[in-house]
Amino acid sequence: IWRAATKSEVLGTCDDDSEGLEKTYSSIKYACVNKEWRTYTSLERTLGLCYKGTLDKTASDGVETYICKENGWKKYTIEDAYGKCTYSIQGKTVDFASVAYGCKGTYWKRLDTLDLAFGLCFKRDEYKIYEYNGNHYFCNGSEWEIAPYWNVLEKCTKALEGKIEKYREKQYYCSSLGKWQEYEPLDKELGVCEAKTLATSKVYNGYNYGCIYKSGNSSNLYEWRKENSLDKALGFCYGNTFEWKVYDETDYLCDDHGEWKKLTYLTTCDSRFANVFGKTVRFNGKYYYCDISMNDIFDTDNGWYALQPIDSIKGPCHGTRLGDTLT
Question: Is the confidence at residue 19, as pLDDT, over 80?
């Protein structure tokens, strides 16, 4: 009697000799893989069977490229094509999927226009300047970065003092300190605010402006500042003087940024802050004097001495006054 063949009868034995063999049962396609009959995965229906005989072969579905690995088809990556990026091949450039890559650190970096123009950026060197499309760049140790003005403009020397140059939409002025500083609109109207004009004031459009000092690494350590209400009450704060005054029962300090600020803490008194030495301030209702040769008021050596009633007679006792007497 004829009968329908079973699945096992149709497919037969799946062994090493039949590895990769394809058969159909009940309109379903099966493949012999690793001594076992199995159906096709969704990717295999498009790309073909992935098994021992096709390991490391590539195929495309028209959108992505895949590679056959032991666990089946997976997306084809640059590591499949060129191996891992290691320190032994640093700087190597390759083309993958019509895109340029370079080995950097432990990964393949997609090269941008600057990498293609200058090469990969590895070692920081802000003094080696590269130019591309009218812009200046340097290697910051990992990426290409726009170069700062001080490394692009010619060196500010005595011969160039007063010269104005433009860099990236800003103007810079070669100052008497031998440094380039930003040339601001107020500099054009009032004259350049720099070391030579510090602590001077000028009137512009009916307002008083002072040339102040601003601490920090800014490209503009000196700038014109408009007078405010505290300046009118206490006198103009030009900065870097550590001047203490009282207004409306509140202690104020002319700080390193050229503004009056409420005194909320005592900055460290030591050789790094010469402008603080010999200064007296009031803090939390008490008076303090800055001199590191005296016994300070804190566990840390911040140099502030709490003034005592006897200090009001001839001033505080400090290292340079040893041997002085009071009567």
Answer: yes
